[in-house]
Amino acid sequence: MFENLYASQAARTRHRAGPLAAERARYLQHCAEQGGTPASLRMRARCLLWVAERIQPDDLGGIDSARLYEIVHEGQSPATAVTLMNFARPWLKFRAAATGNSCLRRDFVFPESGFSLESAIDEIVANAMKQAGGNVSAAARLLGVSRDVV
């Protein structure tokens, strides 16, 4: 896949030698099959390589939103972090589906009483808004919903 995206041998080598190269290439191939343009695929490839280089071995069992937030905000401007998040999240979901490793926390247990789905949704939306710096459209993208929902 990287051969189709980059003319430079150095760029192809950097991407092929980077962490999780086969998984990144599979995802990029999937994106290409879904109609991704060469320019969008190159941008996606750069973002995924950046994230993959910062993933720790402990993260490979599944990354929650807080950990992904920590990874993408490492020395990045808020706008760049949102871009990285928007590219990394679908890749991690794709990776989870392909490998059988869910990105969802398996240790969550519902409390005996007092659980409010509405409150949980409000908290999730508030966290997305905080991550997106108050930008409703960016928060909606983080949540995978329309702007009207947020």
Provide a descriptive summary of the structure in words:
The chain has eight helices and no strands. Helix 3 (21-33) runs antiparallel to helix 4 (38-52), helix 4 (38-52) crosses helix 6 and helix 7 packs across helix 8 (136-143). The mean pLDDT is 82. The longest helix has 22 residues, at 78-99. The radius of gyration is 17 Å and the shape is elongated. The N and C termini lie far apart (36 Å). It has 150 residues and is an all-alpha fold. It has helices at 2-5, 9-17, 21-33, 38-52, 65-72, 78-99, 117-131, 136-143.
Quick synopsis:
With 150 residues, the chain is mainly α. The protein is built from eight helices and no strands.
Largest sheet: none
Q: How far is the first residue's CA from the last residue's CA?
A: 36 Å
Low-confidence runs: none
Work out the strand percent.
under 5%
By secondary-structure content and strand pairing, the structural class works out as mainly alpha
What is the H-and-E element order?
HHHHHHHH
Q: Which oligomeric form is depicted?
A: single chain
> Mind telling me the C-alpha Rg?
17 Å
